[in-house]
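Practice problem 4.
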């Protein structure tokens, strides 16, 4: 009985509890439905939720700002969602509506990263911008955004000026310049030195400096460049200078002067006695005994009589005390006796010369006569016999008939003796120094049998002076040019003043030394 009663009591309690639960379930059906819906929304979907970490907001770096500067806007972004996403910052200028879009940065769930973008300031004064956090693959604006205001000053002025230029043989070319930067921020500047060689620009030196506002002096040591003009530029690095800047300067430079007598020339001809038409090799030694460097120059072999260039070559610059040996060749030797070859070095207006007289090789030519040598010998003997017979006959006639000497033969003898009594004087050729004998009273042109050049002796004819005024040509060395055809002639300066005659156009002129 006790067990049955207890069981009944338990059954009754359980029934009561079950009824209570059923009543609560029937009275709150909407609350259960709402909770079930929220769980379905969160569990199956993947979403992102980007927020500014710690509410730090947008940070601008690079101020104070100037026209042409590039600023950087950055934002610390946290992804509180359950899916990865990529975001970037987009900045729009309020007036020009120019848009600056940064790089998209991928952020995983629960991670925090810095997102940034750069934008350029192009207008002075107050610049208004709108910014927005852009999510890749999502349209519309996000909750992260706003506007910003930046005060922009005019661009800084950058000037460069040349303080001094000094060029010596020992130290080379040295240039001091001053760089001026107006008030504002410190700026990186690239100083570039260049020159123009053969129509192209050649960089000589570059220096990167961090310039503070104010003036700064920079020294350049450029060695010995082969140029006459130097350009120096101050180039802004990742910023823009004012349009009123003068950041480029060009200066003319000149290498130290070299005395032509300080350049010594030595030439060796191989063979020493060349055959006409053969190839001749010439070894030339250049020595600089001056204290200055020379520019690169030109070496020429010139025929002194015709002033034709037989060979030409370029030689490098000569350092003080340096020796340069070069070899040149003459493809075909001139067919003439005693050829005078002028070895000439020239560089930047400086000329040094030396003349060599070369004799031909007669032995190598062989004996090739255009006539029979035996016939020539017989002819010479016959001529000698004829002269002897004529001499004896003349003597016999003159001794046998003395009375007829007054008619003809004595006149002949007297004319010959009078010709022997004509007084002569010795002169020198104005071109080759050959010594010649001319009558004392001779006035006019004389042709030198050695060099075939013509020149004048004595005073010019007064009648010619009345009808024609002679030209006067002056020079500081032995070489001068005809005033009519510009032919180069050689008249020794020690013989001047002297009347000369051009062998080409036959123009007569007075050759004088310059400065007399």
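Answer key:
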């Amino acid at each position: 009985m006790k067990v049955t009663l207890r069981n009944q009591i338990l059954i009754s309690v359980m029934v009561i509890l079950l009824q209570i639960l059923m009543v609560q379930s029937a009275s709150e059906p909407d609350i259960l439905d709402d909770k079930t819906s929220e769980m379905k929304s969160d569990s199956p979907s993947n979403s992102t939720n980007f927020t500014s970490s710690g509410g730090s907001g947008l940070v601008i770096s690079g101020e104070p700002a100037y026209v042409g500067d590039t600023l950087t806007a950055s934002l610390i972004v946290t992804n509180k969602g359950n899916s990865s996403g990529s975001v970037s910052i987009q900045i729009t200028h309020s007036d020009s509506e120019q848009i600056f879009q940064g790089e998209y940065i991928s952020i995983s769930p629960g991670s925090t990263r810095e997102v940034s973008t750069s934008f350029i300031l192009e207008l002075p004064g107050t610049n208004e911008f709108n910014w927005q956090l852009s999510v890749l693959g999502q349209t519309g604006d996000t909750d992260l955004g706003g506007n910003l205001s930046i005060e922009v000053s005019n661009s800084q002025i950058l000037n460069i000026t040349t303080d001094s230029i000094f060029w010596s043989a020992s130290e080379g070319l040295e240039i001091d310049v001053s760089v001026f930067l107006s008030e504002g921020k410190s700026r990186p500047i690239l100083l570039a030195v260049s020159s123009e060689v053969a129509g192209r620009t050649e960089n000589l030196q570059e220096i990167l400096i961090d310039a503070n506002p104010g003036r700064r002096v920079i020294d350049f040591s450029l060695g010995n460049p082969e140029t006459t003009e130097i350009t120096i530029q101050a180039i802004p690095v990742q910023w823009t200078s004012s349009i009123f800047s003068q950041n480029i300067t060009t200066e003319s430079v000149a290498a130290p002067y070299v005395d032509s007598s300080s350049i010594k020339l030595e030439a060796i001809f191989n063979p020493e006695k060349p055959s006409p038409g053969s190839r001749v090799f010439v070894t030339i030694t250049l020595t600089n005994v001056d204290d200055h460097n020379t520019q690169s120059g030109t070496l020429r072999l010139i025929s002194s009589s015709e002033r034709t260039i037989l060979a030409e070559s370029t030689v490098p610059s000569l350092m003080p005390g340096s020796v340069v040996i070069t070899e040149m060749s003459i493809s075909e030797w001139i067919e003439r006796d005693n050829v005078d070859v002028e070895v000439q070095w020239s560089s930047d207006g400086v000329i040094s010369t030396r003349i060599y007289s070369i004799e031909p090789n007669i032995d190598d030519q062989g004996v090739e006569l255009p006539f029979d040598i035996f016939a020539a010998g017989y002819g010479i003997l016959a001529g000698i016999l004829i002269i002897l017979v004529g001499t004896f006959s003349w003597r016999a006639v003159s001794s046998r008939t003395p009375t007829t000497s007054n008619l003809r033969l004595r006149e002949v003898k007297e004319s010959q003796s009078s010709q022997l009594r004509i007084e002569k004087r010795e002169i020198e050729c104005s071109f080759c120094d050959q010594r010649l004998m001319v009558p004392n009273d001779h006035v006019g042109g004389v042709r030198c049998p050695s060099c075939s050049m013509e020149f004048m002796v004595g005073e010019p004819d007064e009648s010619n002076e009345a009808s024609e005024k002679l030209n006067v040509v002056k020079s500081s060395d032995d070489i001068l040019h005809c005033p009519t055809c510009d032919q180069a002639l050689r008249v020794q300066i020690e013989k001047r003043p002297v009347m000369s005659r051009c062998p080409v156009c036959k123009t007569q002129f007075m050759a004088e030394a310059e400065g007399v």
